[in-house]
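Annotators were shown the component list below and the corresponding predicted structure, then asked to write short factual statements about the assembly.
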Amino acid sequence: MSESEFDIIRKYFTEIGKASDWLVMGIGDDAAIIAPSSEHQLLISIDTLNLGVHFPGQCAAIDIGYKALAVNLSDIAAMGGEPKWFTLSLSLPSIDHNWLKDFCLGLSQLASKHNLKLVGGDTTRGPLSITIQIAGETPAKEVIKRDGAKVGDSIYVTGTLGDAAAGLALCAQNEDRNSYREALVDKLNKPIPRIAVGMALRSLATACIDISDGLAGDLGHILEDSGVGAELEQDAIPFSDELLEYAEKNELTSFLELSLYGGDDYELCFTAAEKSHEAIEKVGIEEDCKITRIGKIISDNGLYLVEDNDTTEINITGFDHFNT
Amino acid sequence: MSESEFDIIRKYFTEIGKASDWLVMGIGDDAAIIAPSSEHQLLISIDTLNLGVHFPGQCAAIDIGYKALAVNLSDIAAMGGEPKWFTLSLSLPSIDHNWLKDFCLGLSQLASKHNLKLVGGDTTRGPLSITIQIAGETPAKEVIKRDGAKVGDSIYVTGTLGDAAAGLALCAQNEDRNSYREALVDKLNKPIPRIAVGMALRSLATACIDISDGLAGDLGHILEDSGVGAELEQDAIPFSDELLEYAEKNELTSFLELSLYGGDDYELCFTAAEKSHEAIEKVGIEEDCKITRIGKIISDNGLYLVEDNDTTEINITGFDHFNT
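Structure shown to annotators:
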């Protein structure tokens, strides 16, 4: 007799992640039971990864498991949240135990690292697709939204930008492995959700978003929701050594565009008052995360790029799965 | 310029359902913000419907929207929960506005009826697939689980069984429309989540499950989790007039199997102590829902079917998407 959906759930999913006394009952009934804390607000987000759209066929199962959870954690990070639990819906064309084992390993590693627990799931037949809904918490009124950016605020980003887009381009090429390829493909497959930085920014950031669709589009959401504009210092946008090497070797002059319009970096973009600058530098040091000031919020609507003394208005258009 | 994911979300999804003051912020940021009640426990469940697996290509968008939410509501009903909010992840091969409009109408109708609110979502490109994660509430310790069935308890089901399986068979046939076809296909496409009954059973039922994979398999989960067995009175299993008519016209002698092993009925199967029988009959009358006592819990493991004086042990095997 072949294994049923229930056997798969039991075998692979019941032990993923960690919980504490907020979990009354996890996987195994019609619904999980959770005892929420009245001092906290719940943050809820859902994201899907589809084969051929969000990851290529040759992507390793462990990386798919990792990334499916990482992109959801990134949404919680962008709100200043502490992750608590998640549910998983997994559509599979058939049961492949090696694939499931590796996929769950990728999920588990990240779930354990961030102390969150898989509390429920659905496993069904269909084209390979992974949907995760995640829940995090913040103390009431400490959540960071998109609509709080004020004129005069500085604009910051974590990490470096454009790496994941370069990694995606490298995945499509048959280029030999080299020093930068691995690092850039790793940034695509294993983005680091900035949970600790997001939590540390609760009392500092006026607005925050995670960069999933390119800096221009995602900063654009902050600008639109806050009713402001922004000037970016082109030379301040942080690039990795590997991206610069990749750009040089491939005579790529437009690598700035990878940061502005390329997807999948999952770094945070946030705004903060000038007076918070020192505290923000301290967060970067304490959390061992590069944080770079890249511009400022202005009252004129629109997004402007400043290079030397030239100011150019640029498009606010993020990556759109339906228009690619 | 074609419409982006953000335009679609704004146009179709922000107004679905109803919320009250527990919703701090809905669709539009990295995560929704919810203020949970400390007097209640949260019930969390996730379910996916895939084209070609859970519904056929000719299924109307309004029915797909309805059913995607109904199957999730049914999980909340089975725990005695009151539905509060849900998130939606929708994978679409392309943007079809008529389809989206109808899909959202199906969702909205059911969401409004049960006072729940769509608080977040993800819309992306991929083979047609709908994942909903739903959250409900019960007062702490009033949740109905699967593991509480006791020897001597009566076994009940709501509604009639086997209709959805017959509806599925009829969908695959090119038979002319007739009196029973519409009713049976309706049971397949528009199952009624038994929310009010589930809530009324909180203090009465010892165990409860919704019948998504056939009575035998789903009652089997109660038996396994409770460490007991069951005897079902074959003649007591409730069938609709339409199913009996369908069976007669198609000379179908095995329609009992449709109830035991056919999926998608989404009725409740629950157990309760003998002393609660009158109260349960009252719930059926007050909620205008047929509730039928179909057997009893016994100490011997296994599921037995009793007809006249014959007792036969039957297989506990639910519908399994990977083994069909």
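Statements collected:
1. Residues 214 and 261 of chain B are 4 Å apart (CA to CA).
2. Chain B touches chain A through 71 residues (CB under 8 Å).
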